[in-house]
Amino acid sequence: MHRTLPDTLLSAMSDRLSASIGLYFPADRWMDMERGLERAAVELGYPDTVAAVRDWLSAGALDRTQLEALAGQLTVGETYFFREPRSFEILGQNILPDLIAERRAAGTLALRIWSAACCTGEEAYSLAMLLDTLLPDRSAWTITLLATDVNPRFLRRAAEGTYGEWSFRGVDPALRSRYFTALPGGRHRISPDIARMVTFAYHNLMDDPYPALESNTNAMDVILCRNVLMYFNADQAGRVVRRLSHALVDNGWLLPSSVDGAPTLFTPLTFVPFDGATVYRKVSLPAPAPPPVHRHSPPMPAPVPTPVPAAPLPPVVSVRPPVPTLAHYRALYDLGRYGDAVEGLEARLAVAPADEAAMLLLARCYANQGHLAEAAHWCQGVLNHNRVSAEAHHLLAMIQQERGDAAAAAMSLQRALFLAPQSIATHLAMANLARSQGRIRDARKHYRNIMGLLQGHRPDDILPDLEGMTVGRLMDVAAHAHAALGGDPAGEG
User: Fold this and answer.
1) Which of 38, 54, 74 is the last residue of a domain?
2) Cα–Cα 20 to 30 A to 168, which of 146, 345, 383, 466?
3) pLDDT digits (tens, 9 = 90+) for 447-458
4) Pick from 74, 96, 121: which residue ends a domain?
């Protein structure tokens, strides 16, 4: 195929796609981009690709239908169960058994795994099946298996959980028999028990904030982010890797694809040499040791000072070092330096025990390290001072949900919403909780409330209560979720 669009349009469209949906097409991939643009133009009813591209470039903001068509036609949906089998062997024989043994020894039966860029769900369901084989007492565990993608069509197909023969190539027939039900036409549906282990959600690795309690993208033990970094330029890919690193707990694991970039891209992490797979780890560094004391030779005698006439000493002035502001610790939090922020915030609270903002930030730091008991303790500390802190009730709900206590989370969210009925963050949390529990009508109601509360705001306005997410991004998220649940944005009775 020969390219027909002029380079000027392709270059401008590449920049537009990078900014709007985080897909980067360098010049050597413009032919692939043009093919996708042609398919999107046909889908959206344009007379030709040139007219479509000019319209997309001149539009102030691409609407949801356009973004969905472009994401659907420009991203690759080619995947299958247990793709890159060596990675799953390492997970099943090394990484997960070690994590499971650690958690059993600590008495904390919880695991958190994120399939970033999950496509049509085969990777996430493969992880769920693997965990089921490794955990004979799975019902005793709190397992978070988050699966996200930028393509709403892929997410809808993933949630449906039905697959054809092509998704099973290389899969043990016994595994398929155990976890799938045969349907007419050669299709197979995933077991409801396995499907319930996975939460699918829309998430843009370039634009959406993470790690964040609100999107459940924090304190992950394992992240799979495969065949996606190749869509970003070098700066974008580096930023994504840094944020994924922040989303891992200490000693957590990142599994990219072997085609996802050179080792220098992953410098925040440590390469782990497993044969046949690309694996990195967030190694927690020990505190530096004190300098060694050399005892092989006696110390040199100190020189005898020459006497000098006594002179009056100047008065001693005690100078205290400046106390870091809360903004300083917030900056450490944003950089993923949670340990440093914890140390400073606890010192701050030792002298100012009623500082609610410091306690809430400390709770978030602990939660992003996976220390949920400590995080809940500091939320409760705020509530001990101020029972009507909507933010503390909301944050406590996020922690309770992460600990697997949905009933307590729902109660805390109800308190938060009573105190702050216009809180977009709390409506979002309630929508997500209702959705995870199968309360579809309640979830749609809260998504509609979110869209109503966002009306009148500019798309690029920042929502500080949602870790810096923009109004436009949340409007897209709410609209996608509402539509996926069968809702009509115009309302329902």
Assistant:
1) 74
2) 146
3) 999 999 999 898
4) 74
